[in-house]
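Input:
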Amino acid sequence: MSAPLTSLHRCCQRSALLLHVARQRWSSSSASPPPLHTRLLLFLTQRFYDVEMLLSWRSQLTRNQLQKKNAYYGYTQRFYGLDLASAYFILSLKGGFRFAGQSEWFYADQKGKFSWDFLNHKDTLLEEVDMSYTVINYRGLCNLEGQRSLRTLKLRGCPEVDDWLLARLHVFQDSLEDLDISHCPRITTGGLAALRNLKGLKRLDVSSLPGILSPGLVIILLEEMLPQCQITATGYDYSLNDAQGEEEEEHMQRQR
Amino acid sequence: MSAWRLRVKLRSATGLLVSTRPTQRHTSPYGPLTLCRSLSTGSHLRNEFFKDLEAQLAAFRKKAADALPGSSWSPLQINPNLPPERADIVIVGGGVLGWSIAYWLKQKEMVRGGVRVLVVEKDPTYSQASTVLSAGGIRQQFSLLENIHLSLASADFMRNINEHLGVLNEDPVDLQFNQSGYLFLASEEVAHIMEENYSTQRYAGAKVSLLSPTQLKQKFPWLNTDGVVLASYGLENEGWFDPWTLLNAFRRKAISMGVIQCCGEVTGLLPPSDTKTEKLNILTKKPRVQMPNSLEYQPVECAIVVNAAGAFSGKLTEMLGIGSGPKDSIAGIPLPVEPRKRYVYVVHCPDGPGLDSPFLIDYSGVYFRREGLGGNYIAGVSPEEAEEPDTSNLEVDYQFFEEKVWPCLAHRVPAFEKLKVTSAWAGFYDYNTFDQNGIIGIHPLINNMYLATGFSGHGLQHSPAVGRAVAELILDGNFKTIDLSNFSFRRILTQEPMLEINIV
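Output:
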């Protein structure tokens, strides 16, 4: 009972992270001018090499931190085995998982604290993994590659999940049944084409993907590509409001 | 300066006052509805004078600033588009390979401004460049280990393209990479070659899988598996992308790092002006860059010339006399790169394969891939040696599609029997007539010309990795990440071809 509450709590807090990421990604398409400090930094960057270097160092630092989080847990694998290493990786990224044959979920809380009980289950494969709202990326997925009996993978709202990670999911093609990639800002149509390898997929959630330009058509093509799969695609605006607005404008211009 | 501006303001203010008075005096006695234009020519000239005053004072200020020391004005009118007189490395050819080399050179220099790189491109519209006219696919399914490593490295580069080519405060690069994979079909005769290649590819780390005809039918129900004995399918790092985006990403990043771009054609290589160097290096020459549509040229003194001119690289080496020496000498062996025209047809088929259609290459050489989401596909085939089309222009022969492409396509995918050719284009392969693989390295006779050409259709997919390799060769002296010494010019001298079995 506490698991759904904690997941709800995390949902609310991670939506802030997603909004921030979405704002960064689509900054060029936003109509409003950037805030004053951004414009000041841009002004200084174009005139001083030092400011440019400092800003590039800052972005390099955030990238390095991200790569460190997603590093290959080689030592853990050597000492504790593949499964415990994957479990430890998931918990350090503040995700959750469930062992095969067990019914309880192991989660890490907001501050990153988790119980070490999972160490008791040696050599048990993972069946369900919930990495929603974590910073997992292509490199991090190599820690989960050994889990050939993974049934459920939730990657809801992950800011670093992109098309290349979706292409890598082919390692789970035999066992994966449930995939949730909704709200990931970096997924585009090219990545969805990579899901063709997951022939055993039964449930797919592709709601609210901002990277897809014509969602209606893409969902239909996905349904044709994966006939045995039930696809959930909510959060898209299929209405014809834009077309109607344009017609009204033309009408007004003709009247003038 | 400010005193002048103040005076200009006062003058213009008085000018305004002066100009309004005549109009008030000369209003028509018949009321406001008649023309209010003043009929006196004197006041008209006075108005013009005061309106021009601002502009004239600005021009005067500019002239004064130019006359003062510290300005860059000179009485000789120099064309601003000329390349600089001196550069360290001149890259001939502004395609994706040229810009990739320029980027990696700047990336690997140890100090800011360490190497002065100039990229010379004769056609800024890229109307005949192979880069932008390519189908844009990337695959790891080669038979040579070096090619597989190059593709893997390039895929790695494209995965992290924003890390490499992201410019501060600019939009992130979106290659529109379709992760759809390549599917090679093999008949009875070539199945063993495919199996060998598969083991090489897996050894090198490519994620490829072999499929039997039944598995093929299960995965791709729209495919006709007649005559297919084995199929090789790429699972990861394979697909197609937008070559123009990649070219512009390289260009933008390289220019932001200080690479100088010049629009002009290298029409010759002049002997160096310094007599000392002439004694040491007989064939060290400096490229003569000619401006488009004019006789103006600028010789660029440089240390290294990189020949990345693609389909036109043979012409550049001809200028140096390579190939016109005596038959038995090294100077008698020309660079075996020539342009070969290839057609690409865009077809529309409403019932064709859907989102999962890979880049399919049949054993007959016919290929097709999906383009967009609207039922459009791109198809083509490499013509036989004897039937190579004329390379003087880029005109498309639609008869070729009807005779060579459509029958095979319709046989392989029955849905393609009902298709319509919506458009087509033609592009050049920088075809290496010797063994259809790239030539990377220094030319044995010209000791300052690096070659990076002759990729015969897979230059685009190898461009990031080859750019890095050439930059390592130039700056570090040797290959550091991928060893491409097998692709040097030496194999042409010793007549040992590095043949690849899987060329489209």
